[in-house]
Design a protein that fits this description.
Elements: H1 15-40, H2 43-70, H3 86-99, H4 114-125, H5 136-156, E1 161-162, E2 165-166, H6 169-195, H7 197-200, H8 207-222, H9 237-267, H10 283-307, H11 309-314
Antiparallel strand pairs: 1-2
Helix pairs in contact: 1-2, 1-3, 2-3, 2-4, 2-10, 3-4, 4-8, 5-6, 5-10, 6-8, 6-9, 8-9
Length: about 325
């Protein structure tokens, strides 16, 4: 009714309830890594996924917090934030809600510094894997794990396999398609929205920040997040229909592709792990998966980010 989301004192009255909400937002997605380890019968594999989630979220939260405090010299760091939370707890909440599919906000992301708002957008662009939504973060992370073992296998001359299953041409096709669905939706519809006068008229800001508003909206919809920059007046036919289309395709198509990939793996006989098998746990694997995640997102979204948050920051 008030349109204040988790900033409203009836829902989130104090720093303590704010901390509780952050813990609850992160609890189930992180716990699903333990579920995964129980399914595959190897606790180390689940811990490796937790490490990927934790490192990405810690880096994101640190960058957002630093960006907001660094922007304080411009006198705008508290704009759009509740005084009972301040910069720190607003930034941590923002990192949690964009690193997952939660979408709740306790501050207005449109008022964040250019780099701070950009990092929140990148959290979603990574596929919401830090730690991701309830179930969706896990399958997105496993998609990147499949890509990682395939690329590593090519580099060292080993047959790529994960959980005793060979990653072949069909498996890689499903994994690659699942990876590019969301970026395709975000970039295509952001470009169209910035060209159409009816969509461009809904922007509150012009220039790089206007691009960020439009791109954030389609990034949030395509990743089924639900948060917004809030400067975009999205309640008009074109944006309603296009954002709804992105919600439907961005949620269900990757699920279908991952189920197809799971079916391919289920049809294979499990190969026993040997000394020649590539380990899918440990620091090397964790580092490899993080690098693949950052490279895929960086190569896909960096040009658009350079025209939006980065251009605004340097200007």
């Amino acid at each position: 009714f008030f349109g204040a989301n988790s900033a409203h004192p009836f829902e989130n009255p104090s720093a303590l309830t704010n901390l509780l909400e952050i813990i609850l937002i992160l609890a189930v997605p992180v716990a699903l890594a333990h579920t995964y380890s129980r399914f595959v019968g190897d606790r180390r594999k689940g811990l490796s996924l937790v490490a990927v989630m934790g490192l990405l979220w810690t880096a994101s939260a640190s960058l957002v917090t630093w960006a907001e405090y660094a922007w304080a010299g411009h006198g705008t760091s508290m704009e759009g934030k509740e005084t009972r939370f301040g910069v720190l707890w607003s930034a941590l909440f923002g990192a949690a809600t964009t690193g997952t599919s939660t979408g709740a906000v306790n501050s207005m992301h449109d008022s964040y510094s250019p780099l701070g708002g950009g990092v929140l957008m990148v959290n979603m662009m990574l596929g919401e894997v830090s730690p991701g939504g309830v179930g969706t973060g896990m399958y997105n992370l496993l998609t990147f794990a499949v890509l990682s073992v395939f690329i590593a296998g090519l580099m060292v001359g080993r047959t790529p396999e994960i959980l005793g299953k060979i990653v072949g041409r069909r498996e890689m096709t499903y994994a690659a398609l699942a990876t590019i669905v969301t970026p395709a939706l975000v970039l295509l519809f952001t470009a169209v929205g910035l060209v159409l006068p009816v969509a461009r008229a809904a922007l509150l800001n012009t220039g790089p920040h206007g691009l960020s508003e439009m791109m954030y909206a389609y990034t949030s919809a395509s990743n089924n997040n639900g948060s917004a920059f809030a400067g975009l007046s999205a309640d008009q036919p074109y944006l309603n229909l296009s954002l709804a289309f992105c919600m439907a395709v961005g949620r269900f198509v990757p699920i279908v592709l991952m189920l197809a990939l799971a079916g391919r793996f289920a049809a294979q006989r499990t190969r026993p792990e040997t000394a020649g098998s590539m380990p899918t746990h440990g620091p090397t694997f964790v580092g490899l998966v993080i690098v693949i995640i950052l490279i895929v997102a960086g190569l896909t979204f960096f040009p658009a980010l350079a025209l939006g948050p980065l251009a605004e920051a340097v200007s």
